[in-house]
C-alpha cells in the first residue's frame, strides 16, 4: 500500500540554523500539505501546495517558512532561521484532489536548541 | 502504513439529523489517546473531541460524542442535530500515551451537511 514518507524522523538543530524537512508524497497525488503539532498541543495547518505553488497558508507560515517540490517527488519544508518555538512535530500529507482524503506521513520531530 | 483507518471517504447528512463517522485503529498498546479533528474549508484543524483509552466512559462535547469500543479498536464520532457549519473533513487520530510526538492520522471523512 502506498504511503507518505518523511525524513528525517528526528532533527535537532541550533537556533538560527536553517532546516529542511523532506516528504515523499504518494506518487499520483497532486495536493500537498504541511502541518505541525507543538508538543502537547493541537495540530495546526501550515500550508497547502498545488501545481507548484502555494494555494493556501496559515498565519503561522510566515517569511521564515518556504515549501518546494524540487524534483517532482520530494516536497520540502524549509525553515530559514529556526527559533526555539519552532520545536514541534511536522506532518506532511498528500491527496489526489483537494476534497479527497489526505494521507499523512509519520512526521518529523524538530528540536531547536 | 497507517494504523488508523477511516473507511468512509465521504458522507452526507440532512441538517438536524444525526450522523456517525467510523474510525478503527491498530495497536498493541493498552494506554493511548484518540482524537477527532475537524478541518473546515479554512484548513484550520479544530480539535473536536478527545478520549483517553483508560476511561470507559465515552467522551462528549455538546452535539459531538464518541462510541469507544476498546476491544474492537473502534472509535466512532456521532454528530447530533447536524448543522451546516459541521460541513468539513473529519480526521481520526491516535497517539500513544506519553508519546506526544507520535500521532497517527486516518485519511479523513468528508462530511457534507445538506439543508
Structure description:
- The complex is a heterodimer of chains A (113) and B (115).
- Chain A is mainly beta.
- Chain A is built from no helices and eleven strands.
- In chain A, strands 2, 4, 5, 6, 9, 10 and 11 form a seven-stranded mixed beta sheet that branches. A four-stranded antiparallel beta sheet of chain A has the order 1-3-8-7, with no helix packed on it.
- The model of chain A has no long low-confidence stretch (mean pLDDT 91).
- By secondary structure, chain B is mainly beta.
- Chain B is 0% helix and 51% strand.
- Chain B has no helices and twelve strands.
- In chain B, strands 2, 5, 6, 10, 11 and 12 form a six-stranded mixed beta sheet that branches. Chain B has a four-stranded antiparallel beta sheet with strand order 3-9-8-7, with no helix packed on it. Chain B has a two-stranded antiparallel ribbon with strand order 1-4.
- The chains are: A mainly beta (113), B mainly beta (115).
- Chains A and B meet through strand 5, strand 9 and strand 10 of A and strand 10 and strand 11 of B.
> What structural category arises from helix and sheet content of chain A?
mainly beta
Biggest sheet of chain A: strands, sense, closure?
A: 7 strands, mixed
Distance between the termini of chain A: 37 Å
Largest sheet of chain B: 6 strands, mixed
β-strand percent of chain A reads over 45%
Descriptive keywords:
heterodimer, A: 113 residues, mainly beta, seven-stranded mixed beta sheet, four-stranded antiparallel beta sheet, 11 strands, B: 115 residues, six-stranded mixed beta sheet
Can you give me a brief rundown of this structure?
In chain A, 0% of the residues lie in helices and 50% in strands. Chain A is mostly beta strands and 113 residues long.
Question: Helix and strand layout, with pairings?
Answer:
The complex is a heterodimer of chains A (113) and B (115).
Chain A (H helix, E strand, L loop, with lengths): L4 E3 L2 E4 L5 E6 L6 E7 L5 E8 L2 E5 L7 E4 L6 E5 L8 E8 L7 E2 L3 E5 L1
Parallel strand pairs in A: 2-11
Antiparallel strand pairs in A: 1-3, 3-8, 4-5, 4-9, 5-6, 7-8, 9-10, 9-11
Chain B lengths: L3 E2 L4 E5 L4 E3 L2 E2 L6 E8 L6 E7 L7 E2 L2 E6 L4 E6 L8 E9 L6 E3 L3 E6 L1
Parallel strand pairs in B: 2-12
Antiparallel strand pairs in B: 1-4, 3-9, 5-6, 5-10, 7-8, 8-9, 10-11, 10-12
